[in-house]
Structures are given as structure tokens and as C-alpha cells.
Write the C-alpha cells for this entry.
Amino acid sequence: MLRHVTELVNQHLDEVAALILFGVGFTMLLLDKNLIKKIIGFSMMDSGIYLFLASYGYIGGLRSAPVYTNGVTDPAAYVNPLPAGLVLTGIVVSVSVTAVMLGLTVRLYQRYHTLDMDEIAEQIRKEGK
Amino acid sequence: MPANKKKHDAFARLADWLENGAQPLDEEIGESLADEAYEEENAAEKTIPSVEVKKQTPKKKKRQERHRRKRRDALTVGAYADAWWYRVTAFIVCVSLVGLLLYGVVRMPLFGNADTLADSEVASFYVTHTLEETGAVNIVTGIILDYRGFDTLGESHVLFVAVSSVLLLLSIRGEKDEQERLLESDREQRTEPDHDLVLQGGARLLLPLVLIFGIYIILNGHLSPGGGFSGGAVLGAGLILYQNAFGYDRIGKFFTYRTFRAVSVSALLFYALAKGYHFLTGANHIPGGIPEGTAGAILSGGLLLPLNIAVGCVVTCTMYALYTMFRRGAF
Amino acid sequence: MEILNVILLAVIVACAVAVSLTRGLLSAVIVFMIQGLAMSVVWVLLQAPDLAITEAAVGTGISTVLMLAALKKIQSVQRKEERRDAGKQKEA
């Protein structure tokens, strides 16, 4: 157990941070009743996953960013370009997802005059009578 | 005409539902469920006329009430969020999920170690072939606009759909709200920070830099880090700054809803057509007639530069439109 | 390099915990923005400059501004209702 923990801290620090970010975002999504906080938690889960992916693209040593310098096309000279391409797509999509969620939240607020999930549920329950 | 009347009833119900939200429909379902249950039970006694079935027997009332409560509880799961067992369970689930993932990470390849990732054929294929196959100096741009060009087309459409849905969500209002909306936008116009010296001075200083940097990122996307997405986001942020500093009137002179529509739709159309042409000629081994240029020059990489510009236009318009919708509720 | 990486990761995790514990929405949004900024520097250290530019513009700039605009819209709805309620009380 202790061996695992030291290994995690020594060799997987970025991934550990990414997973903690994911966990904190997930906890916010489940436990916070405020809709805006839920949206922030969702974005936080997104960033955790991006950090996780991007950290596996990194290769140590003197490798440079994936831009050809002096026409060298040797794979040993650059870091892995694939995660960067994947995450770039993801970041921009996550903004549009955030925007749609915020739009829905504003609509809910206009209808129920609260940002609290429980109160919204309560009002729906009352209306259902 | 009973059929006609039924139709009319359905329309009335629909109108009622649209007006008052979901609950009438919901009740309806509960009622019809209760009806069904009741009728099933009484299936043996088919002799009872349907008019009598419709009568409110106390038994039926009770059953109806139970059904209704069930539907309501199904609707309002969120109400459990206050219960202590929900909170404790959620916390335990989160902690154990993170623990499980961390346990998985121990078995993953080491961070930043070349040996564990060097056998990844895909990565080395891209690094070796991107320059000669796409002409892009920036490998990431080569991947997302050439190898995965279809994916990027879909992503641009995701952005467009997101703007459309926000536009729909924020512009539906009742008639009586219209007056208030006008009042609100009037107040917004009046409270516009027209004479904010710090904001306007800062914007005068920063805006040229921001806009030029954004355009540089877009145009140089195949040669240096950046590309349509990052440059478009920078340009969109610049436009948002401009709108905040100088007001709706000034930005309305060159960027309106019509501009947004024309630019983003034509950019998406151009992207789709260019990529389609590229696929058509490439798959059939027809010479495409698009000059490749020498790698490293600004006019090189075939379609990469125009595609970058198209993506940049879409992202700029999207970012600015999203902000404007949230700020004003209208374009 | 290594030390900077560790510090930035610590900032990111601390910001995440702070966001989840903050009561005020405005401060939560601002702290979330700081987290995005630290993240973009981490990506420079991970040799992914494309991601760093995008995150700095999108994660730090645009999503924060969108959240702030949504908060302002919610607040203006609130104020309108308060005024309406005050008007009703005056009439009564």
C-alpha cells in the first residue's frame, strides 16, 4: 500500500492531480444543490480528463513540442502529438456544453425563481397536485 | 362528430400543456394509468357501460391518488439530495471511485517515460508522415485538419448547434414579458459604461494586440502552435472586450446577427465543400489541383490555411454570439 | 521545472477544493478561472503549446465570462421581481 502511494507521488503526480480534480468535480456534481456549482463541477471533471490525457502525451527528456524544427522527422525528437489533438477538440466542445447548460439554468431560474435543485423539485411537486 | 371532438380535445390539451408546463400532461398519464389498471381489473365484467366506468368511485379515487404520487416521486428524485444517507452514499461513491482510478494509474505506463510509449506505432507514424503527407509543420494542426478533418467538421457543427440552442433557450418568452424585456434592454443601454475611462483606455491599448495576435494564430496555425480553435477563441474574447468597452452601438456597426449568420454559415459550408472535394479527389486518385507549396512558407499545406480560417471564423462568431445572448438575451 | 510543476498542480488541486467549499457563486467562478490559468501553464510544461493557448483563451476567458454573464442575468431577473413585489405592496 505504502509502496503504491510513494510510486504514485514519485512517478504519477500529474495523473494523481487530474484524478483528484475529476473526483472533486464529481462530488460537486452529486452533492452541491446549486445548479451553477453543478456546472462548475462538470467543467472541472472535463479539465481533469484533459489533464490526464495530455499528461500521457508528454515524454520526458529533451523532446520538444510537436512542431517540426529544422525538418527533423524522427519520432524520437518530439512528444506524442495525438493527445494534444484529442484534447484541443474537447476543450472547445466543453465550452459549448457549458453554454447550453447555463442557458438551461437561466430558463429554470426564470420559471422557478431559484437555483436550488431541491426547491425546484419541491415546486414541481407542488404544481403536480 | 365524436372524432372531431376528440381531436379538438387533444389540441386543447396540448395548448393547456404548453401554457402551464408539464403537469397537466403528467396528471393525464397518471389518470390514464389508473384508468387502465381499473379497466383491467374489471375486464371480466364487460357488461358495465363505459359511462359508468368513468364515474368516480372511491376505490378508483384512491388508486388514482396513489398513481399520481408515484409519478410525482419519480419526477422529483432531486428532493433526496437533503437526506443524510444520500450525502453519505454519494461521498463514499466519489472517494471509492477516485481510489479505484488511482489504483488503476499505478498499473499505467510510467509518466514521461519514452520506453513505455515508444512502441506506440500510431504516434510515430504521425510524427514521421505528417510533413510529407499534409505539408503541415505543426503536427497537431496536420492531425486535426487533415487526418481527422471529418471530426473537426463535426465539431464546428457542434459549436453551431450550441449557439442555436442557446438562442432558442434564451429568446422564448411569453407575450407579457415582451414589455419587460424592452424595458430591461433599455436600461441596459442606459447603464452602458460609456464613460468608463479605465476600461476604454485599457481596451484601446489591448484590443489591437489581442486582435492581431488572434489573426496571427489563425493564419500561422499550420506553422506554429495554434490554429483555428485557439485563434478563434482569442478573437472572440477580443470582440467581447470591444463590446464591453464601447457598447452595443459601436459593435453593431460591423457585427450584427446578420453578420454572424452569414459568416458562420458560409464558413461551415466552405469547410464541408472543401473537405468533400479533398476526399473525392484523394479517394479516386485524381490530381486535386491544389498547390502544396514548400513546407514552412505561409502559403503551403494545401487546404490547411483556408480550413484554419474557416474554423477560426466559426469559433469567433460562436464565442461572441454566446456571450451576447447571455448578456442581452437577444442579438 | 519539476518544482514549478509540483507547485502548479498543488494550486490546481487547492483551487478545486476551494471552489467546492465556497458559498458565493461569484468567488467560485473566479477561483475556477484561476484554476484554468494554472492549467494552461501546466500544459506549457507538458510541451503542448496548442492546448495552452486554447485553454488560456477558452477556459480562463470565455467560459468564465459566460458564467459571469449568466449570473448577471439571474441577478437582473431577481431585481426585477423585487421591484415588482415592492410595487404590489405599494398598491396594497
Notes: Chain C touches chain A through 39 residues (CB under 8 Å).
